[in-house]
Write a structure and sequence with these properties.
By secondary structure, the protein is an alpha/beta fold. The protein contains 13 helices and seven strands. The chain has helices at residues 2-30, 32-49, 55-75, 104-118, 120-126, 148-164, 183-196, 206-217, 223-231, 247-262, 275-281, 284-293, 304-310; strands at 97-98, 101-102, 172-177, 201-205, 234-240, 266-271, 295-299. The strands form two sheets. A five-stranded parallel sheet has the order 4-5-6-3-7, sandwiched between helices. A two-stranded antiparallel ribbon has the order 1-2. The protein is elongated. 23% of the residues are buried.
């Protein structure tokens, strides 16, 4: 998958470069005097290297020639930078890597492709804060506790705070509650908001995550693709507990949690399991990492999926 995306990345850069070259050629054909000035600049440099003129003379003549070029461009309605190549990504200058690490531009292209395959883009288009409907949640309080509506509004505010403070405060969130109580909906809300703020977000169900671990262990995933799991801005794991429980899956999950905690990379996990069931399902290393490093948000109420189907 990664090699295909890198080819698309390189093709996009090549197209951008070709468009620049075509535009530059068209400008020079339209304004021949600019080509003359550019040739003069080259001649001045040659004279300088040959020792025929001083550095001061060189700089004075080049400044004058560049001003001529700027004036010609302005007179013909062109931006002064039209002859200068502007890379799509100023960070890595379209190389895809910076200081030996994948640049955010290539990283985001990979994640966008993953989102297309995982259907996340379709889901967040339907489930986001704009479509959040608190009227679906009951006002009824039980045993003096918050009503489901009060509870979901508290959870919503916690998510909004998480988003607003994402760059300044490293947090990990655990959604705990029954089926259909709004957990997955809010994970989609968070994902959409952060994606719109140009954050790298990866979303997996716990079942799909174990499948990804298997691909990694079999060498079916390249190093750069694997690194995104460890290094994306936010990793969302939905429906923790739905995956098949094996020594392999638990070791893989622990390694992922531990590595992201070490790297100070945020996570959002949702589960239908209670805290007690989490402790019974996962080994002590995983349970302690989650309980010690995640802020718990409880979801209550009836299954909204059933409710909305009946209405």
């Amino acid at each position: 998958m990664f090699s295909d995306i890198k080819r698309k990345y390189d093709a996009r850069v090549a197209t951008h470069l070709k468009n620049y070259q075509n535009n530059k050629r068209a400008v020079l054909e339209e304004i021949p005097s600019i080509q003359h000035d550019l040739s003069e600049i080259n001649s001045v440099w040659i004279e300088s290297l040959a020792g025929k003129i001083t550095e001061t003379q060189r700089e004075k003549r080049i400044i004058a020639l560049r001003q001529n070029i700027s004036d010609h461009l302005a007179d013909n309605g062109y931006d002064e930078n039209v002859l200068s190549y502007q890379p799509l990504c100023p960070i890595c200058e379209d190389k895809g890597y910076k200081d030996g690490k994948m640049c955010v531009c290539l990283e985001q292209m990979f994640i966008d492709e993953y989102h297309k395959q995982s259907n996340l883009q379709h889901m967040i288009a339907q489930e986001n804060f704009d479509t959040f409907d608190e009227s679906l949640f009951s006002d009824e309080k039980k045993n003096g506790n918050k009503s489901p509506k009060e509870n979901i509004l508290v959870a919503k505010e916690a998510c909004l705070s998480f988003i607003e403070e994402f760059d300044s405060i490293i947090r990990n969130i655990l959604f705990v509650g029954g089926v259909g109580t709004g957990k997955t909906f809010l994970t989609h809300c968070v994902a959409k908001e952060l994606l719109e703020r140009c954050k790298t977000v990866m979303y997996f169900t716990a079942y799909d995550l174990v499948e990804k671990f298997t691909e990694i262990s079999l060498g079916q995933v390249d190093r750069d693709s694997k690194e995104l799991l460890w290094n994306c801005d936010l990793l969302i794991i939905d429906d923790l507990g739905c995956e098949r429980q094996t020594v392999f899956s638990q070791n893989s999950l622990f390694n992922l949690l531990n590595e992201r905690l070490v790297r100070n990379k945020s996570m959002l996990i949702s589960t239908n399991l209670s805290v007690k069931e989490l402790q019974q399902t996962y080994n002590e290393r995983i349970f302690s990492r989650v309980m010690g490093n995640f802020i718990g948000i409880r979801f209550i109420g009836d299954d909204l999926r059933i409710k909305t189907k009946r209405s």
